[in-house]
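A student in our group prepared the protein record below, which I am reviewing. Here is the record exactly as it was handed to me.
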Amino acid sequence: MAKSARQNKILQLISEKDIGTQAELTAELIKEGFNITQATVSRDIKSLGLIKIASPLKGYKYYYPESNESNESNENKLKLLTIFRESVISIEKAINLIVLKTISGSANSACLIIDKLNIEGVAGTLAGDDTIIVIIKRIEDIDYVYGELNKLLRK
């Protein structure tokens, strides 16, 4: 089956079920008739920009932040901002880098929010499990970017 059909099925599955791991998602796709590997699912997750959010039923679940963007853009922005605030533990400057520590497993979600903001002076971001590195284009921009990120934590 085509990549677009598979990715549409992924979006459908995560909207209907609390799926928290690549293995669970792979198993669900196989049940739906897709001949797929976990490596392909991993690439699809990255391609779709899926993030993990807290789930009332279990630890975390996959979430598609662009869903119904035209109708719920403000609601989605508020959800993402809440994720950022609840995830980030600390923020520090280091020469031309800003390092944010997050609760375990939430750095990718918080990093997505930074990326979506397109803050002037940010060259790029990198997320691990519980750490985000924001790379600043020029040392002169670090105070501005640091201030913008701190504002997000206080809003």
